Structure formats: structure tokens, C-alpha cells
Amino acid sequence: MAFIICFLFLSASASLATAQETGSNIRLGSSLSPTSNSSSWLSPSGLYAFGFYPQGQGYAVGVFLAGIPPRTVVWTANRDDPPVSAGATLLFTNDGRLILRSSQGQENYVTAVALSAHSASMLDSGNFVLYGPKGSVLWESFDYPTDTLLPTQRLLGGQQIISSISATNHSTGLFRLKMQHDGNLVQYPVNTPDTAPYSYFTSWTDKTGDNVSLNLDVDGHLFLLNTTGYVIKNITTGGLPTKRMICIFRIGSDGLMRLYSYDLNQKGTLSVVWSSTNDECDPKGLCGLNGFCVKNDQQAACQCLPGFDFVEPGNWAAGCERNFTAETCKTGDAGASYVIQGVDNTLWEDDSYSVLSSTDKDGCKQACLEDCNCEAALYKGGNCSKQRLPLRYGRILITDATSGLIKVGIVKPVNASQNKKEITRMGILFLGLSLLAFGFVMMAISLVIICKNNVWTKDQAPRLFTYAELELVTDSFKEQIGRGAFGTVYKGVIGQKMVAVKRLHKSLAEGEREFQTEVEVIGRTHHRNVVRLLGYCMEGTNRLLVYEYMSNGSLASVLFKSPESRPFWKKRMEIARDIARGVLYLHEECETQIIHCDIKPQNILMDENRAKISDFGLAKLLNADQTGTFTGIRGTDGYVAPEWHRGQPVTVKADVYSFGIMLFEIICCWRRMEVDLLQREAILEWFSNGEIRKLTGDEKVDEDELKAAIKVALWCISDDPTLRPSMKRVLLMLEGSAEIPVPPIASSSICTV
Ligand SMILES: *[C@@H]1O[C@H](CO)[C@@H](O)[C@H](O)[C@H]1NC(C)=O
Ligand SMILES: *[C@@H]1O[C@H](CO)[C@@H](O)[C@H](O)[C@H]1NC(C)=O
Ligand SMILES: *[C@@H]1O[C@H](CO)[C@@H](O)[C@H](O)[C@H]1NC(C)=O
Ligand SMILES: *[C@@H]1O[C@H](CO)[C@@H](O)[C@H](O)[C@H]1NC(C)=O
Ligand SMILES: *[C@@H]1O[C@H](CO)[C@@H](O)[C@H](O)[C@H]1NC(C)=O
Ligand SMILES: *[C@@H]1O[C@H](CO)[C@@H](O)[C@H](O)[C@H]1NC(C)=O
Ligand SMILES: *[C@@H]1O[C@H](CO)[C@@H](O)[C@H](O)[C@H]1NC(C)=O
Ligand SMILES: *[C@@H]1O[C@H](CO)[C@@H](O)[C@H](O)[C@H]1NC(C)=O
Questions:
Q1: pLDDT of residue 129
Q2: For residue 614, what pLDDT is reported?
Q3: From CA 580, how far away is CA 721, in angstroms rounded?
Q4: Which of 237, 279, 24 is nearest to 127 (CA)?
Q5: Ligand 6 centre from 65 Cα, in Å?
Q6: Is 577 left (phi over 0), alpha (psi -120 to 50) or beta?
Q7: Which atom of ligand 4 has the smallest separation from the CA of 227?
Q8: pLDDT tens digits for 564-616?
Q9: Whose CA is nearest to atom 2 of ligand 1?
Q10: Residue nearest to ligand 1 atom 4, measured at CA
């Protein structure tokens, strides 16, 4: 939401403010507390204040317009931290650190990083600045925008602003506006890759050069500027009065960008000068999966597709789930337990696995009913696009004559265990997605539980260490336990607990923001098959990550070191399922989608009991340039999905590919090199000739399980990412809860198997 709030600066505002300290320099040793007379520091004119403001039941720290109700907050420190109580203190310590100390004595850097400043200022521009020696700028709030840009503030290439939860809760919300490195200004939902299918607003200025920035002038002129000072594009015309006005640009919690103006001559009127769209249903992700957006009286609202109910009533973004348990679907009489319901003028992301042309609507309905894989279809002008659940970014679009068709189950009492028996008995090759959907629901429930747990573990967020502390922890980096392309790992001890400390190579020490974001993202993951990040350090050019210690080394060493020590088949399959669970968690995890980008046995670590994924998110950390062109992709040859080489967008399906390659290695205990040499053809030949035992050598294995695992691996390495199963499906197939269709690559040679 872009606001331009144009304020007349009233002298009265100063007297309304509770702060005592004014003037440009905030002295070392000063402090603030929420309920005292000094709860904030004012800018020289008294317009802006930095300090405590009420949030929820407590207080947050940020920058806001002083004394002008309703309080307009333009920046929030550590926005996702819970509010502090009235007993908290904000300290600008004698050694120049800006610390928020909770009433329990817990300390947190307001700047997120450890800094030692000489002085600080709340400027009249709304920028809060920490100065180093000789007045150099050490840190400024303008560099770390939350959801708002103020005049003279810029959004540089690679930066983004993220909406708040609501007008009164400034925690990270659902939408983001990214100034991409390719010069394009794009809006996406949070937790999505920077690729076209997710965007819902673009300035259409891609390929206009590196480091194009978004700028806001005091007159409300919003424009894109390249590094030679050339205006690439005007977004708004500007020309608003510059006296007695403040202009604020913001991405709103509803996903719209707006520029507001507030003229204090007509006190209290906040007016929208410009808005990125008039259609509140435009922002993708407003309604969660299987929901769709409708407009009631110019207000957006979410509804569920027929046969679906809200997962969490009142929380649109959580999406909808089936209100029935799907029946087993058998090819042939698939229609028996389903009907098709239509929703007219509906559109959702077209992610079809098959398109029929020259059909009519009834033909489309029939085709979906007869196809076990079909759970929904989009019908438009003779084209029938068959799709699987979940459906994303659904909305009503009156101007578009598209019909959405949803397959809805006829409600019958379902006995799941019976169903499963039936499937096995009849040996159906194609499992109707019904059981799968049942699994999805179960998984969704467990994910919700995981998600809830996550909230509780928030206080276990990764800790900030000083370099000296980590030197102590690792005994001056004495014992090296691993070395990769990006860092060296050392053993350490914290208290009684062993830890692994990874020191990133200095050459990678740029990208402060990305490092922080990643630390935050990784730090919030919590899953038994994902290595836990305990802490981090960023001091000077040092970048270190502290992980839990994994006693049995990497999967690569476990699999390949010696034939005697390798785990047996059952254990190997358990490891494969463990990894699948971990990857699934990263992909579908509640807060942030993480594409690992480098799944391989070297990055899977083992403790006594289970396999855990490590190094996740580092690819994104080291390659923040996700602009759709994908230059300089990391990833390990042989594991990298083919679309990366074609410069196509990277999606979660790239991880599925790497997982497939790794699954072959787990099955055969071959190194990837050998998998390459043997070629898929050889595997396929053995597979189709019933000679699959050759794959595992002498080892006694359950042949059905082996066959299943190979089929899963073959699905995973499909050339076409859309053909690759989701990680959910991979897991269900590996667990034996879902039948595995004949893999596409293999279908020509083994369709009779
Ligand atoms: C706060 O201000 C009030 C009135 O201005 C004054 O009476 C009181 O002593 C002040 N309290 C502190 C702790 O400075
Ligand atoms: C803000 O919203 C988040 C997410 O819904 C919630 O966890 C948090 O408690 C809210 N904060 C306040 C102060 O209400
Ligand atoms: C900025 O844009 C102008 C006009 O398109 C162009 O001539 C100039 O080379 C661009 N500068 C950079 C650094 O791309
Ligand atoms: C873009 O900005 C980055 C960081 O400020 C700088 O290192 C890089 O050289 C810039 N690129 C161009 C083309 O100006
Ligand atoms: C942008 O707007 C300014 C005036 O606000 C005008 O001078 C300039 O020519 C415009 N540039 C483009 C590329 O439209
Ligand atoms: C599921 O929802 C549909 C409407 O979408 C409704 O007709 C049906 O009765 C619901 N079934 C159950 C079991 O709630
Ligand atoms: C139907 O599909 C064909 C082929 O994909 C495409 O060329 C055509 O434009 C589509 N028709 C409509 C109405 O979308
Ligand atoms: C479900 O199936 C199992 C095994 O066939 C049977 O023992 C059980 O009684 C069935 N339950 C119901 C509710 O039909």
C-alpha cells in the first residue's frame, strides 16, 4: 500500500509527544522506557520519533510520526519479535550499542546486528541513523525498510518491502514488493520465488539494468532510476505540494501499494493519491489454497471451492480443505463416487497436467470424471485443462469467460484401512488421488501441528554470537570436521553440548541482508529431519553459523566409505523417507518456503538415529539474485535439475530432481558418477527385464520395495519439472501409502510390467 501522507507539521505535535530528548544527537548512555516521560527520541522538528509505541498488549520499538493520531508507524525494529512489556528498557549503552532489554533482562540489538556507534540521530526525514567515527553512517533505518518508504528513501536492487499483518500489527504479513536486480519492480506473495507465475504487479521494466532503484520524492513522485541517473519509469507523476506535507508509500496488509497524502490544513484527512490496482482481488495469496477471491461491495473476500471448507475459519490465507474424505478412484468407473460442480468465471493458476482441446463443457466434465488424476478442470473456449489439487490463486473474474470445474465426492462413510487393502489386492496401477488426498489432509493436519510447535519454539531463535565467543567454543577453530565449497566446519562445545560451527569463506561475506534473512528463515525451521541452526555470528567480514552436532557424519560417508559399514536396505529406505520428510517440510513449511537447491548425500548429516538435511537455504543465501534469469546458479553437477541449465525458473521441483538422483545412490550405494556412467538406459533395461537385483548387488532386498523405490526415483528425475511428483507424493509413495504409476521415462519400455 502506498501512502502519501502529507502532513502539516504543527507546532502542537511537539507538545503531544511524550519524549523529552530532542535535537540531532542522542547521547551515549541515554535510555528510554515505554511508560516513563522519555519513551522516544524526537527528530529536531519534532515530526518523527524513535522509541516505544504500543503494540498489542505491550510495546514495540520503531519510528513513527510523533503526536499525530492515529499513530502512523513507518518502521519497526525486529518486527517479528513479540511486543515487550512496560518494564522494558531501550539502552544506548556507553559503548554505543543500541539494545532493547526486556523486563526479564533479555537483550536484543535493535539494529539486529552488533554495532558500536559513536552517536545516533532521529532525522527529520524519518531516518534513524547510527554514526561511527568522524560522522560516518554505520547503520540507518532507511536501509532496512519494513512496509513503508518515506520521501528520499530508496529501495535498491535486491531490496524489498513486506506488508504488515494489519494496520495495527506490524509483524511480517503476506505480500512483498521487490526491486529486482534486473530492473523490474514486482509484487509477490511472501515465501514465493521471484518468478512470473507468482507476481501480481510488475513495472514491466525488466532488463533495464543493474541496481535500478525505486525512489520517492517529497512531492510524491515515485519513479525508477538507473545508476546513471536516468528515469527508467515514472510510476506516479508527483507534483503534490511539498510544504506542510509528508508523503508515505506503503505496501498494505491487503497487498495493494498505495500512495497517501495527508494534508494537515484539513486535519485528519488521509487520501489515496495513487494505488497499484483498483481490484482488491489482484494480490495473489490473499486466499489460501483451494480458496478463491470474490468482491463484495468493492471489498475482497475469500470463499472455498465447492466441497471445501476453511482450514481455519476467519483466516483466509490458511486456505480450504476438502470437507469429505475422497474415495479410491479406479480407472473405468471413476465417476461412481464423484460429481462435478462448476464455478463460473473462475480463474486460478493454470497448472494443468493435460489439456484437451475442442471439447464442450460437458465433455470436459466427463473427461475429468473419468480421469483418476483429475481433481479440477478449467474450461475455456473449447480447451479443458485438467489439474490436480491444490488450486492456487483462485478468483472470480467477471471479464473472463472461464469455467472452473471441481470434482466433488459423494459423501459416503469411508473405511480407510479397507480401502488400502482393496488397492493392494486389486493391484491397481493408478491409485485414485483419493487416498492421496486423505494423506494430504493428514499431512496438512500434522503440518499445522508442526506450525503451532514452531510458534512455541520462537524463543529458541538462533542466538547471536560474537566472534570471540565462537573462538572459545571451538577452541580457536582447532578441530576441523568438514570442508565445503562455501565454508569450513569445526567442532565446538557449548555447555555440555557439542556443536558444529561453520565458518563461511571470507569472499562470500557480502550480502549482509541476505545473510540475516536466511539466518532468520533457517533459524525458524524446526523439524527432526532438518539440522537445527543454534546461532550465528556476523562481525566484520566474519560470517559463522552454529548448528547442532551430528555424530555420524554425512550420508555420503555412510553410504560410500566401505561396503561393510553401509546400512542395510531397510535402514537405507528409512533414511530416504527421513530425507523426504525433511525436504517436504522445507517446501511446505508453514512460514517460509525454502528451496534447498543442493540436495545431495554430502549435505545430509546423520546422528545415531536419523538423517537430517543441512546447508539448506544456503543456495538462496549465496545466490540472492533470483531474478528469473538465474545466472551463477550454484548446485552440484549431476544433481542439478535440467531446467537450471536452460535458465528456467527454479522451483521446488528442482529439489525433487536432486532427491531422485540421491535416491538412486541410496538404493544402489553408487556414487553419482557411477549413476552417470551407467546411464538411465541401463537402469531402465534392467528394470524392464526384471533384473533389478543387479542394482543392489548381492544384498537381499524386498523386490516390491526395490521396484517401488526405483519407480519413485524415475518419477523424480523426469525432465519436465511439472511431471515430477511433489515431495508430499514422493513421501506417500515411499511409505507405500500411494500406488506408483508407471514412470514417464520408463513407459515406453516397461508399460507391461
Ligand atoms: C515526568 O513528568 C512529570 C510532569 O511533567 C513530572 O512531575 C515527573 O517528575 C516526571 N518524571 C520523571 C521520572 O522524570
Ligand atoms: C501479530 O500477528 C502475528 C501473526 O498473526 C501474531 O503472532 C502476533 O501475536 C501479533 N502481534 C500482536 C501484537 O498482536
Ligand atoms: C541508464 O539508462 C540510460 C537510458 O536508457 C542508458 O543510456 C544508460 O546506459 C543506463 N545506465 C546504466 C548504468 O544502465
Ligand atoms: C550494484 O550495487 C552493488 C552494491 O552496491 C555494487 O557492488 C555493484 O557494483 C553495482 N553494480 C552496478 C552495475 O553498478
Ligand atoms: C518522468 O516525470 C518527469 C516529471 O515528473 C518528467 O520530466 C520525465 O520526462 C518523466 N520521464 C519518463 C521516462 O516518463
Ligand atoms: C461440503 O460442502 C458442500 C458445499 O460446498 C456441501 O453441499 C456439503 O454438504 C458439505 N459436506 C459436508 C460433509 O459438510
Ligand atoms: C486452446 O489451446 C490452444 C493450444 O494450447 C491455444 O492455442 C488456444 O488459444 C486455446 N484457446 C483458448 C480459448 O484459450
Ligand atoms: C474397517 O475395516 C476393517 C478391516 O476390513 C474392519 O475390521 C472394521 O470393522 C471396518 N470399520 C468400519 C467402521 O466399517
A1: 94
A2: 84
A3: 17
A4: 24
A5: 49
A6: alpha
A7: 14
A8: 778 888 889 999 999 999 998 888 764 667 788 888 888 899 988 789 998 75
A9: 37
A10: 37
| Cβ of 422 below 6 Å from ligand 8 | no
CA-226 nearest atom, ligand 3: 1
What are the C-alpha distances in Å from 302 to residues 346, 390, 689?
A: 13, 16, 53
Pocket of ligand 1 (CB under 6 A): 36-37
The residue contributing the CA closest to ligand 5 atom 13 is: 233
Residue-wise pLDDT for 153-171, tens only, equals: 999 999 999 999 998 899 9
CA-to-CA separations, 587 to 6, 413, 530, 593, 652, in angstroms, rounded: 43, 32, 12, 5, 7
AA letter at 72:
T
- Tell me, in angstroms, the distance from the centre of ligand 3 to residue 229's CA: 8
- Contact (Cβ atoms closer than 8 angstroms) between residue 294 and residue 396: yes
pLDDT (tens digit, 9 = 90+) per residue, 207-230? 888 889 999 999 999 999 998 989
- Which ligand 3 atom minimizes the distance to the CA of 210? 14
- Give the pairing of strands 463-464 and 533-539: parallel
| Distance separating alpha carbons of residues 441 and 751, to the nearest angstrom | 31
| Nearest bound ligand to the CA of residue 226 | 3
Which residues have C-beta atoms less than 6 Å from ligand 6? 306-307, 323-324, 411
Assess contact for 536 and 544: CB atoms under 8 A. yes
56 CB near ligand 2 (under 6 Å): yes
**Which pLDDT belongs to residue 201?**
95
Nearest-CA residue for atom 14 of ligand 5: 234
Rounded to the nearest integer, the mean pLDDT of the chain is 79
Q: Using one digit for the tens of pLDDT, what is the confidence trace for 406-430? A: 888 764 444 444 444 444 444 333 4
Is the pTM of the predicted complex or chain greater than 0.85?
A: no
- The C-alpha atoms of residue 118 and residue 95 are separated, in whole angstroms, by 8
> Cell 509527544 sits at which residue?
17
Please say whether the beta carbons of 264 and 7 come within 8 A.
Answer: yes
Q: Which CATH number fits domain 463-548: 3.30.200.20, 3.40.50.10800, 3.40.50.620, 3.40.630.40?
A: 3.30.200.20
**Top mutation candidate among 415, 421, 424, 425 for ligand 8, by most atoms within 8 Å of CB:** 415
Counting as low any pLDDT under 70, the low residues of the chain are 1-24, 67-69, 264-269, 325-336, 410-460, 484-486, 506-518, 520-521, 589-592, 616-637, 672-681, 697-698, 744-753
* SS3 of residue 709 by DSSP: helix
Q: Which CATH number fits domain 1-144: 3.90.226.10, 2.90.10.10, 1.10.472.10, 3.40.50.1820?
A: 2.90.10.10
Q: How far is the CA of 669 from the centre of ligand 1 (A)?
A: 74
* CA 323–ligand 6 middle distance (angstroms): 6
Fold of 555-750: Transferase(Phosphotransferase); domain 1 (1.10.510)
**Ligand 6 center–CA 322 separation, angstroms:** 9
**Cβ–Cβ < 8 Å for 194, 514:** no
Give nearest CA residue, ligand 8 atom 2.
418
425 lines ligand 8 (CB under 6 A): no
Report domain 145-277's class: mainly beta
Instruction: Give nearest CA residue, ligand 5 atom 2.
Output: 234
**Cα-flanking dihedrals φ and ψ of residue 612, to 5°?**
-135, 145
Q: Compute, in angstroms, the gap from residue 234 CA to the centroid of ligand 5.
A: 6
598 is catalytic: yes
**Quick one: CATH architecture of 291-409?**
3-Layer(bba) Sandwich (3.50)
Q: What are phi and psi for residue 383, nearest 5 degrees?
A: -95, 135
Question: Where do we find the cell 515431495?
Answer: 727
